[in-house]
Amino acid sequence: MAKKKEAEARVVEAENRMYELMLVLKPDLLESAVTKKLKDFTKFLKENECNVTMEDVWGKRTLAYRIKQFEEGIYVVYNIIAPTTFISELDNHLRIDNEVIRHLLISIENDYKYSKFDEEIEEAPKEEKKAPKKEISKKEESVKEVVKEEPVEEPIEKKEESDVEIPLSGTSKEEVVEEKKEEKVVEEKAEEKEEKEEKVVEEKEKVKEEKIVEEKEKEEIDRSALDSKLDDLLSGDDLNI
Amino acid sequence: MAKYVFSTNQKHPLGKRRCAFCTNQTMEVDYKDVKTLKIFINGFKKIKNRYYSGVCLQHQKKLARGIKRARHVGLLPFTN
Ligand SMILES: [Zn+2]
């Protein structure tokens, strides 16, 4: 009877199947630690006569729910060809491992082709687009205000002119127009001032940064000079303390 | 892959409903494909009834398996 069982086991051992393995690693591992971990893991697989056909590191991803008090996880996907007897051992090995939060080991068909599914690529460019838009909008605000004000003024002028035409003579028109022009000029000047002020502020910041850099350089120079002086004093043996 | 359209088919009468996976024959249920799995999930993150999603029985079973696998690995939530 024992011999028969052994023979069956040998028959099972000869069978190789394709498996897909997904690991979720701890998020607080460093990149070097992750690469080391994966190298060791592939070594462990090869020692047990496994053939790694595909390895894909997804990177950090937010989990849908907390797993072992972690909000994030590092996802890694393997496609392996492994002997069927080794799978239970591998499962136990992964369950004991502390750095692996979750793992999923499933059998796949032989004609399975791994394909990537991009979910976050559509969301990411939106965020990138949003950021520069805000900067532009801040700059354009002054321009937009001018654009908005002008069309509002023009109809008012026309209306007033039309209203004024009937009771008053032609001289009043020119006066009104001149007054409006003056107002416009004042507004434009105010806007120009604002722009100038912004430029001045930027220049001031730049000057400050330069000053800081210069101060740092000066400090370094002073330190180096002091060091050289100290060396001279020490080397000279003229210590008159 | 992303261009396939998955409609709920509820506008059509019962006889004209087609399974979204059967119509796009290259498409297969994969637990890593979160984007398509989310279409077959309820507002409470429960698996949608076959009556509302219009999926055939074979694919509904595969879908359920895929969603459960995705839940286990933390790609999809169990509840809302
Ligand atoms: Zn179907």
User: What spatial form of chain B do the alpha-carbon principal axes imply?
Assistant: globular
Bound molecules: zinc ion
Helix count of chain B equals 4
Question: Structural class of the secondary structure composition of chain A?
Answer: alpha+beta
CATH superfamily of the domain at 12-107 in chain A: Ribosomal protein S6/Translation elongation factor EF1B
Report the uncertain regions of chain B: none
Number of strands of chain A: 4
Helix content of chain B: 25-40%
The share of residues in extended strands of chain A comes to 15-25%
Radius of gyration from the alpha-carbon trace of chain A, in angstroms: 38 Å
Structural class of chain B: mainly alpha
Summed up, the helix count of chain A is 5
Distance between the termini of chain A: 99 Å
Rg of chain B, nearest Å: 12 Å
How much strand content do the residues of chain B show? under 5%
The count of domains of chain B is 1
Strand order of the largest sheet of chain A: 2-3-1-4
Q: Supply the CATH architecture of chain B.
A: Irregular
What features would you describe in this structure?
The complex is a heterodimer of chains A (241) and B (80). Chain A is of the alpha+beta class and 241 residues long. Chain A is built from five helices and four strands. Chain A has a four-stranded antiparallel β-sheet, covered by helices on one side. In chain A, helix 4 (123-165) runs antiparallel to helix 5. The model of chain A is unreliable at 121-130 and 156-172 (pLDDT under 50). Chain B has a single domain, classed as 30s Ribosomal Protein S18 (Irregular). Chain B has helices at 20-23, 34-37, 50-53, 57-73. The longest helix of chain B has 17 residues, at 57-73.
